[in-house]
Amino acid sequence: MKVLVTGGMGYIGSHTCVQMLEAGIEPIIVDNLFNAKEAVLGRIEALTGKAPLFYHGDIRDEAFLDSVFSAHDIAAVIHFAGLKAVGESVSKPLEYYDNNVNGSLVLARCMEKAGVKSIVFSSSATVYGDPASVPITESFPTGATTNPYGRSKYMVEQCLSDLFVAQSDWSITLLRYFNPVGAHPSGTMGEDPQGIPNNLMPFIAQVAVGRREKLSIFGDDYSTHDGTGVRDYIHVMDLADGHIAALNAVGSKAGLHIYNLGTGTGSSVLDMVEAFSAACGTSLPYEICPRRAGDIAQCWAATEKAERELGWKATRNVAEMSADTWKWQSNNPNGYTSV
Ligand code: NAD
Ligand code: UDP
């Protein structure tokens, strides 16, 4: 089976391509390399023994995308491509709506023309906003988003849901990721953020490797077990497997399928610092700073629906997430550029 993977050179996409190749699914990658390095291709090939087909191009380029669809017998699309920095989305809203919303519309239109009616979309737990309680089930209200990035994810969910209302023979799968972290256990592939990392785990990893002086912990006065923010961190390999489970279970079934991809367990910022310190063997310097605007106290997933309907469950714990991140970061202190 051939599956078009938009954004397949990025963090989650590259790990998913590895797992697809291991499972006998052929990824066809489209990526504009805005936030990825071409070196990723060689890493995928080294791990799997297979070189995925890669098209360097932008999903908003309709003629280009049409040509990719007409060159292959594509069964489904996994749609990772997009911009993802929450803070940047506040200062560049038009770029975020153009890339994330318009890009998804162009993709859906090309799929329609090519008669490809199965899409798995990278959504986010951010669509739930600040939940009234935890764990969060898929039926919790969505849309109370606090920034353009979150709104762009919510808008694409709405567009694809409306498409399903109009054309009920589509299979549309919305996967709401919680907090993806970790790296391939080989230490050859991982997250390679450009500039100062916005997210906790890559920041901690760069402190551990000496690229940053110390971690700023954004608030220790939340009503959580130690006062710091609690999130549902999920290993990127579990997340990758979740996409394959979704393709296999519902990718060829008409319907609007919505799943949380998380572990069902919450960890605080201090829990993550402790887990990472154990993995790298040194204690990590940090300071307590004011809360970050827009942050919520806690959030973790209800995972029963994905377990029941996809037969998928995350299996890797925060110790493995930290150990694999450390292996990647210490082997590649400057990410893919150090090759
Ligand atoms: P990433 O930036 O590593 O990967 C995205 C890839 O898409 C990059 O390789 C980039 O070059 C490419 N891209 C961007 N715009 C493009 C365009 N117009 N045309 C072609 N390629 C384009 O991000 P990631 O962490 O792998 O995230 C993948 C998806 O998952 C994104 O849609 C993101 O919003 C979503 N998501 C990520 C997280 C997270 O914490 N990483 C959480 C929830 C949802
Ligand atoms: N966080 C932090 N310092 C950082 C980055 C993040 O204390 O440098 C905290 C943040 O306040 C939140 C948690 O770590 O409680 C996860 O933040 P991240 O940005 O990784 O994910 P998100 O906020 O999108 O869930």
Strand content: 15-25%
Per CATH, the superfamily of the domain at 2-182 and 233-262 and 302-310 is NAD(P)-binding Rossmann-like Domain
Largest sheet: 7 strands, parallel
Helix content: 40-55%
Strand order of the largest sheet: 3-2-1-4-5-6-11
Second CATH tier, the architecture of the domain at 2-182 and 233-262 and 302-310: 3-Layer(aba) Sandwich
Broad structural category: alpha/beta
Task: Compute the CA-based radius of gyration.
Answer: 19 Å
Q: Which runs of at least 5 residues are low in confidence (pLDDT < 50)?
A: none
**Any ligands, ions or cofactors bound here, and which?**
nicotinamide-adenine-dinucleotide, uridine-5'-diphosphate
CATH class type of the domain at 2-182 and 233-262 and 302-310:
Alpha Beta
Strands, count: 13
Q: How far from one another are the termini? A: 32 Å
- In DSSP terms (H or I, runs of 4 or more residues), the helix count works out at 11
The helix/strand series, from N terminus to C terminus, equals EHEHEHEHHEHEEHEEEHEEHEHH
CATH topology of the domain at 2-182 and 233-262 and 302-310: Rossmann fold
What general outline do the C-alpha atoms trace?
globular
What is the average per-residue confidence, as pLDDT, rounded to a whole number? 97
Layout of secondary structure:
Layout: E1 2-6, H1 11-22, E2 26-31, H2 39-48, E3 53-56, H3 62-71, E4 74-79, H4 86-91, H5 93-114, E5 118-124, H6 148-166, E6 171-177, E7 179-181, H7 200-208, E8 215-218, E9 230-231, E10 233-235, H8 236-250, E11 255-261, E12 267-268, H9 269-280, E13 286-289, H10 304-310, H11 318-331
Parallel strand pairs: 1-2, 1-4, 2-3, 4-5, 5-6, 6-11, 7-10, 8-13
Antiparallel strand pairs: 9-12
Helix pairs in contact: 1-2, 1-8, 3-5, 5-6, 7-9, 7-11, 9-11
Bound molecules: nicotinamide-adenine-dinucleotide and uridine-5'-diphosphate (UDP).
The site of uridine-5'-diphosphate has 14 residues, from helix 7 and strand 8.
